[in-house]
Amino acid sequence: MLQQTRVETVVPYFLAFMERFPDLARLARAPVDDVLACWSGLGYYSRARNLHRAAGICLEDHGGRLPSSQEELEALPGIGRTTAAAILALAHDQPRAILDGNVKRVLARHAGIEGWPGKSSVAGKLWKEAEARVPAKNAASYTQAIMDLGAGVCTRSRPACEKCPVAGDCVAWLEGRTEQLPGPRPKKTLPRRCREFWLVCDHHSRILLARRPPAGIWGGLWCLPEADELAGLDPEKGRLETTIQHTFTHFRLEMKIRRALISPADAVTDNSELEWMSVDQAMGRGLPQPVRRLLESGLAGPDRTRQPTE
């Protein structure tokens, strides 16, 4: 959950997730819809799907436990070099180098490594530095300490260098370059995409949702349908209700929301990826964040769905 997400955002999700899925077996046996519902709002939903798949593999191939070798861990969906090494260091006290965002920042400043850490040549230097510093003993304590150092002291902006236990030989501190290191991500203009989604309601105050394909944006989540997913249905002419801006890592999405009322006689579809739900039922499913916020706004409430669309 902490991959690309701040701790304060993750904490309530983590607590609820662990209460719902306290062990790998229960996670593996749960429907993926339940997993995505608990993840709804965190973003980067491939993490949830990978976690669910990895739990299934652990249950089937590893006796319901996480494997304890780097190679077997990296073979699980969603686990890469750093995550596997962190598991081995923290859970098994093995001397393994990690390189998460906080550690990259600490090492770049302390060793004076120039450039954006996402560049392969810079990442190579950081990995070399990380591996050279891992102690042969007390790897768990060291790994937790360097992550905490980056999260709480060597922060991205206004680092507390005067409180840092390793400031004495930190290149960035000694040379007054803490604001320059690590190097920034090269700026780029995100492309803009515009898509039209339909908030289709019936006379029973239900809404029509479509399950997204497993791959792609919002994979496996329940979303408002697009026009081509409404084939075979005959909603009355929909009016443009609102426009939502949502930013992904690689592009900005403009969601034009059209709202339409459908008659009971036409509210039948043989598309297994479409389902009528009450708003309460929908809120219990895995929903993209902008769709969840839209439903929370009351736009699909009973007082709105009973009004005929002009």
In summary, what is this structure?
This protein has 310 residues and is α+β, with helices and mostly antiparallel strands.
How is this fold's topology laid out?
Layout: H1 7-20, H2 24-29, H3 32-39, H4 46-61, H5 70-74, H6 81-92, H7 101-111, H8 120-133, H9 139-152, H10 171-174, E1 192-201, E2 207-211, E3 222-223, E4 239-247, E5 252-261, E6 274-277, H11 279-283, H12 289-296, H13 302-305
Parallel strand pairs: 1-5
Antiparallel strand pairs: 2-3, 2-6, 4-5
Helix pairs in contact: 6-9, 7-8, 7-9
Report the span from N to C terminus.
44 Å
The CATH class of the largest domain, by name, is Alpha Beta
Name the helix and strand elements from N-terminus to C-terminus, one letter apiece.
HHHHHHHHHHEEEEEEHHH
Give the helix proportion (percent range). Answer: 25-40%
Class by SSE composition:
alpha+beta
Shape: globular
- Number of E-type strands: 6
Radius of gyration: 24 Å
| Poorly predicted sequence stretches spanning 5 or more consecutive residues | 302-310
CATH superfamily of the largest domain: Nucleoside Triphosphate Pyrophosphohydrolase
CATH topology of the largest domain: Nucleoside Triphosphate Pyrophosphohydrolase
Strand order of the largest sheet: 1-5-4
- Please report the number of helical segments: 13
DSSP strand content: 5-15%
Q: Please give the domain count.
A: 3
Write the CATH architecture name of the largest domain.
Alpha-Beta Complex
Mean pLDDT: 89
**Major sheet description:** 3 strands, mixed
